[in-house]
Amino acid sequence: MSGFVWPVRVYLEDTDAQGVVYNASYFRFLERARTEWLRDRGVDHRRLRERDGVMLVLAGIEASFQAPARLDDLLCVSAELSELSGARVVFEQSIHRQSLEGELLCRGVAHVACVDVERGRPRRLPASLLDGLS
Amino acid sequence: MSGFVWPVRVYLEDTDAQGVVYNASYFRFLERARTEWLRDRGVDHRRLRERDGVMLVLAGIEASFQAPARLDDLLCVSAELSELSGARVVFEQSIHRQSLEGELLCRGVAHVACVDVERGRPRRLPASLLDGLS
Amino acid sequence: MSGFVWPVRVYLEDTDAQGVVYNASYFRFLERARTEWLRDRGVDHRRLRERDGVMLVLAGIEASFQAPARLDDLLCVSAELSELSGARVVFEQSIHRQSLEGELLCRGVAHVACVDVERGRPRRLPASLLDGLS
Amino acid sequence: MSGFVWPVRVYLEDTDAQGVVYNASYFRFLERARTEWLRDRGVDHRRLRERDGVMLVLAGIEASFQAPARLDDLLCVSAELSELSGARVVFEQSIHRQSLEGELLCRGVAHVACVDVERGRPRRLPASLLDGLS
Fold this sequence. Notes:
The structure is a homotetramer. The first copy, chain A, is of the alpha+beta class. Chain A has helices at about 25-40, 45-50, 125-134; strands at about 5-10, 55-65, 75-85, 90-95, 105-115. In chain A, strands 1-3-4-5-2 form a 5-stranded antiparallel β-sheet. Chain A is elongated and about 45 Å long. Strand 2 of chain C pairs antiparallel with strand 2 (about 55-65) of chain D.
């Protein structure tokens, strides 16, 4: 359960007229880190869909914002598996400026559900995925 | 403290390749309803900034997703003030399909902070804003 | 070939740290107007997909930006069919502030192609769609 | 005037319910490459604003879409300076799948204007910027 970090550069597209990163952008950044965490374990969205007939969807998320990220910042987004059970994966995540030692900007907890592509219903994580995650 | 609802139409821009509304889009919808709730009370972001020197920023948010919204759906997004104190406003929010009586898709609680534009520090809500909110 | 206009409110999500509407947001606004133009004629993306097995995709677009839209602005986005042939529809579009008589902010020309959902290849517009458009 | 390329990974946030990259996302990708082209020359948006009192804004853009990018694709976005005069910079850009030798997905021409931050009017490119660009 070691930490995983993914760098994200802040572009104009991510900011808003208050001069900082727009709140929904942080959720895009958090998801990029979860996606790369998966890819790092040999799993991607497309393969899950085509090979296993499942998709991972966000069932719930909490985030708190400590300080604003700004245009041109380089961010360090972390994703750590904190729970894994049946059809659910829970990630603890953070966003720091520049590096994990930099200023903490955001903390989040993401609850991800495994869902059957055809029926849209919760489904146990496929064995291939569980192998990749552990 | 009566409820306020705002209609949101789902466009291609809001959806993702899983065929449903992308998770960060819900946070954009929730903010539209909070912004319109304010406008309904005679307050908008620009006026707050220029007249009062403050901006409202999201300090934290929790959301749970019960069912997916889809392309072309008409959504009904609610915003209800649940707490008002010093430099913080808390909103309880929901997203239903079609109307408040339609299927519940998302529930959220948004913690909004009042921040000084110049110094970026928390500041008590200006009286003019408090008047508008109560 | 009368004009069609669709109102769009500018939210924080649409702006950037330069204090104005972010460039890619205009393309979202232009598409909302095209989508509503279609809906106004009884056609929506979902129906096209399910009933006719086609989707409308953007094949090309040109836009020029005359003046910036800003947070809280109400915009008036127009869509006018300027060409209709085989598998292509061309729209001339504009974005004005407040109303069609307001300041011109953006002009665009959008080339939309009809594509087979299964094979991803161009396909003639279905008769049902052509009827709706004329 | 050698070419510059910037890799972009396609995430869920970039796609739409048609199963491909959403059209406005390409404009975000094109801008990332222009921004990184600048950064590569020692210039960033924040510095331009604070040191020179100018910002670069998109005055016009044309794009044609040849083939769709898809979820999980790695894209190669190019930016090449094709004109530099007074208050304008023109970039020729492309998006290929995987590498410059991969399938061509998009071609674009972006007209970027230099604008005074205070007055919002066109301004000649500052000497420091011109030095960086040539």
